[in-house]
Specification:
Two copies of one chain form a homodimer. The first copy, chain A, is mainly alpha-helical. Chain A has 14 helices and two strands, in the order H-H-H-H-E-E-H-H-H-H-H-H-H-H-H-H. Chain A has a two-stranded antiparallel sheet. In chain A, helix 2 packs across helix 6, helix 3 packs across helix 9 and helix 7 runs antiparallel to helix 9. The longest helix of chain A is centred in the last third of the chain and has 31 residues. Chain A is globular, with a radius of gyration of 19 Å. Chain A starts with a helix and ends with a helix. Chains A and B meet through helix 2, helix 6, helix 7, helix 8 and helix 9 of A and helix 2, helix 6, helix 7, helix 8 and helix 9 of B.
Amino acid sequence: MLNFEKKQREYLSMIENSLHFYLPQQGQGQELLFQAMAYSLENGGKRIRPILTLAFCEACGEDPHAALPFACAVEMIHTYSLIHDDLPCMDDDAMRRGKPSCHIQFGEANALLAGDALLTLAFETMLDLEPAMPVAPQRVVQAASVLAHAAGGSGMIGGQVIDLASEGKQIPLDRLKVMDALKTGALIDAAAQMGCVVAGASEQVCGAASLYASCIGLAFQIVDDILDVTGSSELLGKPIGSDAEKEKSTYVSLLGLDASRRLVTELTAKARETLVASFGERAAFLLELTERLATREK
Amino acid sequence: MLNFEKKQREYLSMIENSLHFYLPQQGQGQELLFQAMAYSLENGGKRIRPILTLAFCEACGEDPHAALPFACAVEMIHTYSLIHDDLPCMDDDAMRRGKPSCHIQFGEANALLAGDALLTLAFETMLDLEPAMPVAPQRVVQAASVLAHAAGGSGMIGGQVIDLASEGKQIPLDRLKVMDALKTGALIDAAAQMGCVVAGASEQVCGAASLYASCIGLAFQIVDDILDVTGSSELLGKPIGSDAEKEKSTYVSLLGLDASRRLVTELTAKARETLVASFGERAAFLLELTERLATREK
């Protein structure tokens, strides 16, 4: 019988401890950089991506500790992308997760460099040999390669550029899907796949993890759009979002609320089927996680 | 008998062709990003770092083609660091190598993301399996790890942060040395070491490459400082640099011109000795390169 909360706490504790461990401490004059990196990396968040990496590794029958460097690497890359996204030349956001953004706290130049350093730290972390829990070099290369491609110009960064070019414009559904698949989907995909690669899973199993990730990645984005509308509608008399937000194409603005909800249900069902077919009983935690992501209320 | 120019042209041609080959072409709407990446990466430069990678690989008796992904990766990281350095929140430089900087040409947001994408592309490139010229996964991990650590917060980025914090201040010689060792030395060290790692060289040989690199990295920086003074002094009646430049500590301002020149001679001699002791006749190209770097006039 699965105790979801206990397992989730176990994963979270592994992740938080390791993130702290991997952060550089001893500097030669660049301590402010290390503080800025820690400030953003240790600022909570749901840690969905690293949890997926650990859970897929365990669903493949491997000790999830082996996947920790890769789980932490995907969170480092997610965090760096938020730091750079918040910069004045990008979204110019002064707040992130209830605290001043990295550039408000440490200045623009240090935030830029802290982002660069977290992206680089992701690779330092994956490529360091771990004597305590060794992963075969072939698997290290494959997993790190999956993350590099997902994070790069043909993945996450590509999605950010498409997003920039679409600002304040109505875009069609297929372009919105491509943008989200790159901007948020690629990293979720890499998180799931890396767990399998570290465990030495077959190409077929890695493919199943990737299919699962593409379903929940899209569902996650649609739920976000639904919550933006249903959440805001409760704030009676308050204008819904800024002008730019109002003009932005979303799944709800393009499909309507009902069709958006149906699509989430379909994607979640497909994600669950994929899990059961490839991982059987070992998918218990991931099945519950999938359900909770689809029915979340914030 | 070494034909230095011919060998240099051969290396340069390998590097330029491979850089072009590794750049992403086919986008899904992010073509502007790819243009910005190509604009900065294919904008000349002396390619000293990738040449070191290929030359050390060949000095170890291995076909330098095997080291091409690593040579190109170090140049991608060097280029991304220049793009981010030129941004308004950093040095705010409008020109780079005689052309408008990346952010002048493509806008700040696209330049930021082009830098991020080039840093990521370095790892995509190293971690892709090359069926034509396979490098053992163990060596791939080791070489990519060397570059990641050299480029990160404890390497190049750390040096940039120390540089930022020292702006407009006089700093002592030991701090200037630490800053340069991180900011420019670390990447030169990684370039040399990676060539040896790809060739499967012993730890001792990798250590010799690293010692060589630390000598020429420092010598290179001192020559830069000397040329800044002797070059500028020819511009009679023109103020030497900006106020900030004038106040900046350099090897020349701290040691004087004569002692700086002696130090370059000493470092170059040590670099040459290290080459001869570890690589013998195979060091011919590197010996000549070392001499030319020390006596260059621009």
